[in-house]
Amino acid sequence: MARTGAVFVARMSVLLAASLVSGAATAQESADTIYRGGPILTMDDGAPRVEAVAVKDGRILAVGTLSDVMPHQGEKTELFELEGRALLPGFVDSHGHVVMGGLQALSANLLAPPDGEVTDIAGLVRTLEVWTEANAETVAALNLIIGFGYDQSQLSERRHPTREELDRVSTDKPVIIVHQSGHFGVANSRALELVGFSSETPDPAGGVIRRDSAGALNGVLEENAFFAALGALVRDLGADGFKAFARAGAGLWARFGYTTAQEGRATPQVSEIARSGAAEGLFSIDVVVYPDVLVDRDYIAANVSGTYENHLRIGGAKLTIDGSPQGFTALRDRPYYDPVGDYPPGYAGYASASMDQVVDAVDWAFKNQIQILTHANGEGASDRLIAAIKAATERYGAADRRPVLIHGQFLREDQVDALQSLGVFPSLFPMHTFYWGDWHRDHTVGPVLGDDISPTGWVTTRGMKFGTHHDAPVAFPDSMRVLDATVTRRTRSGDILGPHHRVDVMTALKAMTIWPAWQHFEEGEKGSIEVGKLADFVILSDDPTAVDPETLDQLRVRVTIKEDAVVYEAEGDEKTPDHRGAFPAGAPLAPGFELLEALEEATAPGGE
Questions:
Q1: Which residue in 9, 163, 195, 527 is a FRET match for 397, CA 20 to 30 A apart?
Q2: How crowded is residue 601: how many other Cβ atoms within 10 Å of its Cβ?
Q3: pLDDT 10s digits, 77-96
Q4: For the chain, which residues score pLDDT lower than 70?
Q5: Phi, psi torsion values for 108, nearest 5 degrees
Q6: Is the previous residue joined to 114 through a cis bond, with omega within 30 degrees of 0?
Q7: What residues make up the domain containing 49?
Q8: 3-state secondary structure 293-318
Q9: Which of 233, 259, 275 is at the close of a domain?
Q10: Same domain, 169 and 280
């Protein structure tokens, strides 16, 4: 079993003298590890809190009181002393983008407080300049200056930067910055030139190349236009570069207690790179990949599997219907409340997939018994999904397919009823109440409907299972921010957005453990601390059920354990280092990710 650093200090390998071993003890199977000495929250309603857990060969051997578990102590058993810290099942990622999360680790941090320092466009430009100077080797290896996480709703100017403003950073190197939603970006003049975008370039289907009043490109790219540009700019990265992204992302997920990560939208090429990397030992946690159903269905059908190989599997298909609510590209069933920008009267967003595409994709998934995850933010997008699932269910009959709605931020209550009746699992985004709750209240849907974004209360009162997610790299995969937002629904300004959608701590924890394990058809292996399941654990600095709910975001992940092996451990005995400093603006790459080395290999002569 792999063990690291101070974990040895927290454990004691005790040799039992033969005279102290009772007959009952010798009859028990010896454990590799026994965890004890702190609160243990199992997520098992039959025994929600226990005193100790025994593990053998990466699986849970015994759970219960000390008198139940300690007879499994043998000569080679290690005692993992929790020292008052809380042990929970490892978190299961209900929705995120672990490969794209590696890109976040590689980029300049353009996030607003509390996760970054950018509050205006001048500060954004300055942050890029400082980062570029500090990361000259990375810029040379990528031939790209890249920043992640800007959000026009948090900039004092309340608008996107322009290509001219990014030209201040560089005119000879391409510069692209990624919106925190991941659905927009801004390119400088050199980047636009390299990707072949000009004033004559038409908008792609499901995307917009923004222009100024004279028809010239202003650098802002929406949805499919942005995805095309970013793909072109990183096209020469090579397989090793994408493997570096994936390794960095999985490492970041482990820092926040996730033992199962999701790549929630991949191409076949990225999926195969991830599989190749997994075979090389790239991942220490499980990664489940959902390739895009509109790209290559044959690939999905040939590779989907319920079994992990080298910690990776293809879980099903991903469909995207609309865009970003905070960016006003989510497809609504009514006009936006007070959109900031140049929008026509009655503007209600737009779809990135047509109704025919939605119906066809869902029909294919149901016919082939393949799980489909669907991104739908606006009410209009959810209407399309519900209609398609209803039609497919009527055609192929009910079965345990577990289709998933991703986000569903502007759901109506009648749509929640439809999700329940159709057996759709909602993976909701209450973390949005913190980051964009004020923006939604004031601009996207208004103060009345704003209370009902990410309606965890509605699904809870109906007794529905649901997941909560971070959608990283939209934000850091910060499990404690997810937990805090689900319980408190406090916005950045301190407002409580929809108090009737607050849920208790245990419900919020189930939405991060046992329920997303069910979402992935893995409830028999993960999500709770029960005999026979994998020994996937997270150790928190305190018991989340025992602290003031308003302080949940102050809890820290101390240790992450995958199948009884430590895959992340906070350094020292002090408070876990704050993730907000993990990739600070202007700092070199985080140590341990080895991104630059892999990128240099990928871009070297003769490399992939």
A1: 527
A2: 18
A3: 999 999 999 999 999 999 99
A4: 1-27, 105, 236, 572-608
A5: -65, 140
A6: yes
A7: 7-84
A8: CCCCHHHHHHHECCCCECCEEECCEE
A9: 233
A10: no
